[in-house]
Inverse folding.
């Protein structure tokens, strides 16, 4: 019987890699959380897109559109909401840029500004709700309107609560460098909250008036 000489030689373990010099956190597409938020935005954007397509499908079944027009008060409040959301966008951009530079004071300040604006938008929307002259079960138009309306409320509320949690962390600590990456990733969600309302506002509020 022959013995393979190679089997008698002990195998030495592969050399270990020294990773002590690698950074403990990352920004942008190098961070796993960034990709997680991107996938979340993709899912929610698909849901909102399907709702907006459903709006036009329902519209094709009506000779008179909309079957119940929005009140002037609801339209005016919606315009105010859109302006507040638009103002929060540059505030969050500045916050994300400061977070990437790991600057605590401007990051915290602009995150507070964006969160206050988001909260103000929700307050104004609370005043708009009783001025909408139809409920969700009144007709198909009411169902799709309230669904789009409600989904966006959920998105804004989620963004505000997440920002509030990050503000509490920045104010009380302990603060680690990785938290700046969390804030930059969180800003992606807020960008989506603002940008998704651009076509939704145009479709729900402007298109019927045209």
């Amino acid at each position: 019987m022959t013995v393979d000489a190679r089997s008698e030689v002990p195998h030495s373990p592969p050399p270990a890699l020294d990773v002590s010099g690698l950074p403990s956190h990352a920004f942008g597409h190098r961070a796993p959380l960034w990709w997680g938020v991107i996938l979340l935005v993709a899912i929610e954007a698909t849901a909102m897109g399907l709702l907006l397509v459903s709006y036009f499908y329902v519209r094709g079944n009506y000779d008179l559109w909309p079957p119940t027009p929005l009140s002037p008060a609801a339209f005016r409040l919606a315009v105010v909401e859109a302006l507040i959301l638009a103002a929060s966008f540059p505030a969050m951009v500045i916050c994300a840029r400061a977070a990437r530079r790991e600057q605590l004071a401007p990051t915290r300040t602009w995150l507070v500004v964006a969160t206050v604006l988001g909260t103000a938008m929700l307050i104004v929307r609370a005043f708009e709700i009783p001025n909408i002259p139809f409920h969700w079960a009144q007709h198909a138009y009411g169902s799709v309107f309230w669904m789009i309306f409600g989904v966006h409320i959920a998105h804004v509320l989620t963004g505000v609560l997440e920002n509030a949690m990050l503000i509490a962390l920045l104010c009380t600590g302990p603060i680690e460098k990785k938290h700046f990456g969390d804030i930059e990733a969180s800003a992606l969600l807020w960008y989506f909250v603002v940008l998704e309302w651009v076509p939704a506002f145009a479709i729900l509020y402007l298109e019927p008036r045209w």
About this structure: The chain has a mean pLDDT of 85. The longest helix spans residues 140-172. DSSP finds five helices and no strands in the chain.
